[in-house]
Amino acid sequence: MSVIGFTAADVPDQSGRTFFVTGANAGIGKELSRLLARRGARVLMGCRSRTKAEAARDEILRDVSGADVAIVDLDLADLGSVARAAQTVVGEARLDVLLNNAGVMIPPLERTADGFELQFGVNHLGTFALTGQLLGKLAETAGSRVVITSSIAHRTGRIDFDDLNADKGYSRWPRYAQSKLANLMHTIELARRLAAREHPVIAIGCHPGVAQSELMRHMPAPMRIFSPLTGAMFNTSAQGAWAGLAAATAPGVPNGDYLGPTSMLEMSGKVGRAKAEAHARDREVARRLWDVSEEMTGVRYLSG
């Protein structure tokens, strides 16, 4: 099956397969969980808020007869929580896909439980640590995948190795772009390292375009007012989930691929192959980012 023109209607039957979806209680994550459950998958919903997670789970159970969904407590802003969540998932009978969807966008300056700037800490470091701790479990199942969600914002991103924790200054949008560039560089470098070791797991990147989601809550008030209008032009949360669904389920997607919407400069529409900017493929920066990420998280994998 080609990913060109992929939508939710193209998701194959997923009976017998297990997916761990992070950020599953709202927006795109909830739509990913709903669609996968509808196709017969067991869905582990990784969520920070137990109350919101239960509400989202109950909504899916009402919407999808016989849905197999379970909550995994996960706060990507706390590496201890990440480790506990990974151990919970390792206890599952199988894991076919880790779908790294959760993220934060342009919040005020905040710190994670481990002292990292929130956007880099949640979007990249939490995802990096979770992925490393679940690779062994994924390897137990043939055809397993790691999916990492980036953004068109990676185009303007640069990795500020001299100030990753924003101790010298903080600007919301550049820090968001940095974190999303880190997501894409992680995907590409992960795919490279997996292939070099002939590892059974593959890594695929994706981005949702411009979609209505909980990420919009930190937008300036004027932009929030117009978000229903932009929603009519761009993707809904359900449409924003299409790229993640393609990365997670489309047969034949190659290791290291990057998928996203194909209309309006990749901001909306059906899914196809997305463009990773040249600086996202810089191997030297990617290796440095990997080493720094291992140091910051204490999670080491595919090294040496």
Please write out the topology.
Elements: E1 18-22, H1 27-38, E2 42-47, H2 50-63, E3 68-73, H3 79-90, E4 97-100, H4 118-138, E5 145-149, H5 172-196, E6 202-206, H6 221-233, H7 237-240, H8 242-249, E7 258-263, E8 268-273, H9 283-297
Parallel strand pairs: 1-2, 1-4, 2-3, 4-5, 5-6, 6-7
Antiparallel strand pairs: 7-8
Helix pairs in contact: 3-4, 4-5, 4-9, 5-9
Radius of gyration: 18 Å
The main sheet orders its strands as 3-2-1-4-5-6-7-8
Would you count the extended β strands for me?
8
User: pLDDT under 50 segments (min length 5)?
Assistant: 221-232
Report on the architecture of this protein.
- The protein is of the alpha/beta class.
- It has 9 helices and 8 strands.
- It starts with 17 loop residues before the first strand and ends in a 7-residue tail after the last helix.
- About 5% of the residues have low confidence.
- An 8-stranded mixed sheet has the order 3-2-1-4-5-6-7-8, sandwiched between helices.
Brief digest:
The protein is α/β, with parallel strands linked by helices.
Spell out the key features of this protein:
eight-stranded mixed sheet; alpha/beta; 9 helices; 304 residues; 41% helix; 14% strand
